[in-house]
Amino acid sequence: MAALRDPIRLIPLLFAGLIVLGTLVLSLPVSTSDANGAPFMTAFFTATSAVAVTGLIVADTPVYWSTFGQVVILALFQIGGFGIMTAATLFGLMVGRGFGLRDRMATQVERNRLETGDAASALRLIFAITLTVEGVVAVALAMRFATSYDISALSALWHGIFHSVSAFNNAGFSSFSDSVMGFQDDPLVLGPIMFAVVLTALGFPVMQDVRLRGLRWRLYSLHSKITVVGTAALLALGFFAILAMEWSNPDTLGPMAAGSKMLNAAFHSVMPRTAGFNSLDVGAFHDETIMMNFFLMFVGGGSAGTAGGIKVTTFVVLFVLVASEVSGSRDANLFNRRFGGSIARQALTVTVLAASIIFLATTYIASISPLPLDHILFECISAFSTVGMSTGITADLPASALIVLCVLMFVGRVGTITVATALALGERKRLYRYPEEDPIVG
């Protein structure tokens, strides 16, 4: 009963319950195209991936699953994405991280309680943005599929809805067997998907700041400024790096015209940050491109959204701390604001825990699988960061490795929210301090 009174414990339990329910429904004969029902591991892995809005799959979604099964998968990542964004936002309000609700002053003292008006405003905005963006993107994609490809109007509408909901929730599931590789030269398909992914990856606090303050940049919260600038910098880095590294690769960008190369480089600078769609064969990337994807996936997107990873704000806080230490500055400052010591410790804790979990999972899977280490590491980072992009080895992994990936997806998606909140809420002052003594570092 204590867990039901504690939202930090309740949220993981609710998501675990949704995974169990999804597993049971996907195990039914009506959920598979052959009407035989899915084996437990297939149903469990797919349900976990959908609820955690990841997108890793062990069975071809449009081929293996029936229409009913695909609708169930869509419902799981819609509920999972909405629930994750809502939980992350409400937890953020609980710890008072300055979301700018009710037009608060940027220097307002942090509070340790959640106001009903703030929660209601947050939920209304999340719901409105979800319906609006998913509807607009679904219509745009459906019209493109129906008018430019050999797809019936009804099928085009289904594909449009499926990809719109999947993109907005950063789920990465596709109703096409090759993801969106069949549209790699079409900006009217890749463009709306990128828009939906980037928007929701920014997170609710940024959306709320834009709604309340428009383009008045100086009024944005520090969180929004860090997220917007950090996201833009990482997208630019990914774009130019992928474009340069894959420009002459005959299996990816090599055969394309210059315009298509830039379009697909832009698409793949967005997707490793949070969503698992791919317009290129990820398994054919050069090693240096795979390394860049490691970095982009690990950092992820913005907080209080459906993106995974350690989050842009976490990475920027650590980067500024390092830069301040190197320059000899006493404080870590950014945008005329100073970072507190608790934020630095929280950022470091989240990063170290994430790296440790990925390291342990990769080591275990490498010990039981003959697959290349870089592909295994890619899969583990993708799972933990709920990216869903894969080099194509998921279905070849043994059952125990799939269970490890399920744990990574669950912990990486639900766990990061609860851990970060617990760290913020669990801070307490002691009535005494030990004598200070510094060990040798480096």
TrEMBL record:
GO terms for biological process, alphabetical: metal ion transport
Chief localization: membrane
Membrane topology: Multi-pass membrane protein
Record's GO cellular component terms: plasma membrane
Protein name: TrkH family potassium uptake protein
Compartment(s): Cell membrane
Domain of life: Bacteria
Alphabetical keyword list: Cell membrane, Ion transport, Membrane, Transmembrane, Transmembrane helix, Transport
